[in-house]
Each structure stands twice: as C-alpha cells, then as structure tokens.
Amino acid sequence: MSVRTDRRRTSYIGETSTDINAQIDYIERYISSDGCAYFVICDQAENRLGTVRLYDAQGDSFSWGSWVLAPDAPRFAAIESAMIVYAYGMDELGFDNAHFAVDIGNERVWRFHQRFGARRVGKNEKEFLYEIDRDSVERSVSRYAKYLPNGIVIEG
C-alpha cells in the first residue's frame, strides 16, 4: 500500500485510498472479477518492489498498467517486471498482443515502452496509446536476457 499511495510514484495513475480496509475490499473485488489480474512485484527474497495489473482483454490482446515501482527497487526491476508481465500475458494466458495507454506527461515510462518495442498507435487529450506484438516482445526479451539469465518461470 505504501507504494500505491506514494504520490511521487503514482502521479500518473488513479488515486489510491490510504484506508487499509478500502484497499482490502478493492483487491478482493479485483481478484474476483473476470479478466483481471493484480500482482505485487517481488524479488527472489520476496521483498515487495511494486505493483502491476493486467486487464481489458480484447480478442488476442491484453492491457496492463498501474505499474508502480518502489523508490528503492533495483534499477533493473522495470525491465524484469515488464518481461514477466509479457510472459504471463502471452505465454501463460495465450495472448499474442498487448495494448496500453501512458500519460503524455509520463515521458520516462512511454520512452521505456518504445525502447521495449511498443508502437505508438494514437493519442487522446491525456494519453499516448501503444500496441506491441509477440515478435517485438520476443526480440526485446532476447535483447534484455541478461536481466533474467535463468529465464522466466511462472508458478501457481
């Protein structure tokens, strides 16, 4: 909850209540909803590094967002967590594409996605719209393989 309520980290995503019971209710509702997944990003020692969610399935495409990393997360946590999101969405759930929106002012994040291979396909008054396909993800996973030298294993 501390990461999700840190306004310096979450200024480009929706506001989160600081009421723990409201958070528990939100997570319980989210978990029980169809087509959505919410994850706490952890390292191998199970230190909590951030959050991310998958949602908005449209045909062979899923969306992901609410991606927030703690200020003390290792510098490679962004690339590792993106690779894991794509592995889960594509390899585990069977999607071939992803689509998502990034706040126009969040330059650091939209540049990250572009370096990862996402294509800007549009924009609205608030956000840039992106798509990425399986081939682009696989090229980036190969390019960044040093960050997950043992590959990605999804358990459970």
What is this entry, summarized?
The protein is of the alpha+beta class and 156 residues long. Helix content is 34%, strand content 29%. It has a six-stranded mixed sheet.
How would you characterize the overall build of this protein?
With 156 residues, the chain is an alpha+beta fold. The protein has helices spanning 7-10, 20-32, 77-92, 107-116, 134-143; strands at 37-42, 48-58, 61-69, 97-103, 119-123, 127-133. Strands 1-2-3-4-6-5 form a six-stranded mixed sheet. Strand 5 and strand 6 (127-133) form a beta hairpin. The longest helix has 16 residues, at 77-92. The protein is globular and about 40 Å long. The protein starts with 6 loop residues before the first helix and ends in a 13-residue tail after the last helix.
Give the C-alpha Rg.
15 Å
Low-confidence stretches: none
**Straight-line distance between termini:** 23 Å
CATH architecture group name: 3-Layer(aba) Sandwich
